[in-house]
Amino acid sequence: METSTLDLRSVLYVETVNSNLICCICQTPFIEPVVVETCGHTFCRSCISQVLSTKPTCPVDRSVLSDASSELKSASKIISNMVNELLVYCLNKDLGCTYKGQRQLINLHLKEECKFISLKCLNEECTEIVMKKDLMKHMENCKKAICNKVEDDKVEECSYCNKKYSSSLILLHIEECPNKIVTCLYAEFGCSWVGNQHELKNEHINLCSYGSLKNFFGEYKQRMESLEHENQQLKSSVQELQNKVQSLQDQITEISDCVSSSVIPSLSSYYLNYSNHPNLLNPNKDIVVETTSSGDRRVLPLSPPPPPLSSISQPILTTYELLLSDNDHLKNEVETLNVNLADLELRQNVALMTESSRMQEELQSVKNLCHGLRMQMHYLLTERRGGGNEATTATAPVTRTTGLIRSNNNVNVSIKGNNNNNNNTKATNGHFKSLQKLGSMGTDLPRQEKL
């Protein structure tokens, strides 16, 4: 099966999946789970998007969604981790592949490890489809390659095994050459082994201590990538806030320059002109006398009084103060975000250190238990092989002691001999009970998942 047609809905799961992790639309475990904010139901992103494109209602409770695109939010990280860590079989199980692993690693398995995927022959004129494990053999016996081999005079030598191959096969051979120098598959986790490809597949990969921890390292790597992504988002948010603060500062500077260069000088000149005419500044000074139709006489000023300077400058100063306060508020928010970011990073580091130390302690306890069981089994085997010799050696001191005491009191000697035999029997029973207790402890230990 080709990896380009990978569909996670077609994979076969090893164990029964929890019903809470099943999408009610496609009836398979969630793929890219999203949550509808209005009702809180969880669906696959592709499933709910297809449903909402026809009718903007929730498929479960039929609640109407005003804005379908904004209602969909990514589900919590724990849900994504649970569905991604479900154990599945390889898509080529029917062809003979025995792989079992996490769903999130199935794509990597199909691309790099699976030998049962279908590939096209590397010869351009050949159209046959063969499995990856048979590709090398097919290339050696390919009819098109044999026909072209007569015309192809270019022969290259493998730098690892010194065998000669045609130029069309040399690259494929180098990838699978048993003498090729490679590193361990778990080199990124800390394994420093280096050797040829034959030793890696037949010896080292089965003995590598990092292989039993690859699931833990995979989760650790995924968690670190998630934290790096969150940190990058926080940095982007901080950068946006800083840009907004800088923009506000520029606006404040422009407003301040505008006020200082145009508004205040114009007001000053305005009041200076009125100061040269005191009568104009006094609105109570009668300049014109108007006679109404009723014969009443009313005194009118020459022109309306100018607005007071404080009433004009007050709105400008108020706006300026508001901008300054907003600027200070944004600065405080940026500082708070910086503190929260540092605190979050510190917490994550402490959590990772705690998890690592816990895993080391568990590994050490398992090693100690195995060592204790080995010593007990060694003691039992030695005791069984020794047989009568050890029994004779163990009873000799008791016989000598009994002989010394018999001269004083034969009755006491016989009683003590019986007591010694009883004590030996009790010690043996206690010894086997301790072994049974250790065995029960061994069975209670969590079984390591078979890789």
Automatic annotation (TrEMBL):
Source organism superkingdom: Eukaryota
ZnF segments: TRAF-type: 109-191
Xref: Gene3D superfamilies: Zinc/RING finger domain, C3HC4 (zinc finger) (3.30.40.10)
SUPFAM superfamilies found in the cross-reference section: RING/U-box, TRAF domain-like
Example GO BP: protein ubiquitination
PROSITE patterns: ZF_RING_1, ZF_RING_2, ZF_TRAF
Any matching Pfam family: zf-RING_2
Coiled coil: 217-258, 320-347
CDD domains in the cross-refs: bZIP
Keywords: Coiled coil, Metal-binding, Zinc, Zinc-finger
Boundaries of every RING-type domain copy: 23-62
Ranges for domain TRAF-type: 109-191
GO molecular function term, any single one: zinc ion binding
Name of the protein this chain belongs to: RING-type domain-containing protein
Organism from which the protein derives: Diversispora epigaea
